[in-house]
């Protein structure tokens, strides 16, 4: 089985539709060098999250191909692909379990020190320490409700702990206060550094740091640049 090492990402003339009637993406081509950041912007429904889903192989392309390290992702074992890629989704759904379990997701069990370090880097450690049972606090239906910003930082901590070669970030659209936004920006900067990053960006502060920006409209790239 082929392995992912460098983490370059290429879309080669990709088209896609969820159900054959309507094209959602048409002729999408871009290349991201290892360690660089690509930002995707555009109106709601333009296909940004779909690009993220295709890269993680939730769906297969209808036309064209997606390559990582010059290998078509169809030839890469699903488990290698998902090990190499970390995803911070648009709306993080937490498991009905402890904070610790949620940061650990996808791993058997990381040492406590690693979990705490990831949480610190994601700027969520202090909030966790204020919860009734700290890292053993139950979240979700049975326990404490976390705010959107806190949930996203838990997802960032999970991704930092996983330490993938490629990071896919689907920035939350929800309004955040200035301090929370600053905390999340700092956490994102840590998760992106030295990793190939594709980020669906809604905030100017995120877009500024990208190496390339693609503007999507109705499934087409209508503008690109910095
Ligand atoms: P937003 O900024 O609101 O998150 P987006 O650019 O991420 O929007 P996508 O989620 O990629 O948009 O959706 C692109 C188009 O595909 C939309 O028209 C949407 O209705 C459609 N779509 C998304 N998911 C599905 C699905 N599972 N089945 C059918 N159509 C879908
Ligand atoms: Mg989206």
Automatic annotation (TrEMBL):
Report the residue ranges that make up the ABC transporter domain in this protein. 9-226
- Source organism, top-level taxon: Eukaryota
Location in or out of the cell = Cell membrane; Early endosome membrane; Endoplasmic reticulum membrane; Endosome membrane
Record text on subunit structure and interactions: Homodimer.
- Recorded family membership: Belongs to the ABC transporter superfamily. ABCB family. Heavy Metal importer (TC 3.A.1.210) subfamily.
The protein's name is ATP-binding cassette sub-family B member 6
Species name: Ranatra chinensis
**Entire-sequence positions represented here:** 573 to 798 of 798
């Amino acid at each position: 089985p082929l392995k992912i090492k460098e983490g370059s990402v290429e879309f080669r003339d990709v088209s896609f539709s969820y159900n054959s009637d309507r094209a959602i993406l048409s002729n999408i081509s871009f290349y991201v060098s290892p360690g660089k950041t690509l930002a995707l912007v555009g109106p709601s429904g333009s296909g940004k999250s779909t690009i993220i889903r295709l890269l993680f192989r939730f769906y297969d392309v209808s036309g064209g191909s997606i390559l990582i390290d010059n290998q078509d992702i169809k030839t890469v074992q699903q488990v290698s692909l998902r090990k190499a890629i970390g995803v911070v989704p648009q709306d993080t759904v937490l498991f009905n379990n402890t904070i610790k379990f949620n940061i650990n997701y996808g791993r058997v069990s990381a040492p406590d020190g690693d979990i705490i370090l990831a949480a610190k880097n994601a700027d969520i450690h202090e909030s966790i320490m204020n919860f009734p049972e700290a890292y053993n606090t139950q979240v979700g239906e049975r326990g404490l409700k976390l705010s959107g910003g806190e949930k996203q930082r838990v997802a960032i901590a999970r991704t930092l702990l996983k330490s993938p070669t490629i990071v896919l970030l689907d920035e939350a659209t929800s309004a955040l206060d200035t301090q929370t936004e600053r905390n999340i920006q700092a956490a994102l900067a840590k998760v992106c550094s030295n990793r190939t990053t594709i980020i669906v960006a809604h905030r100017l502060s995120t877009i500024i740091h990208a190496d390339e920006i693609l503007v999507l409209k109705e499934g087409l790239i209508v503008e690109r640049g910095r």
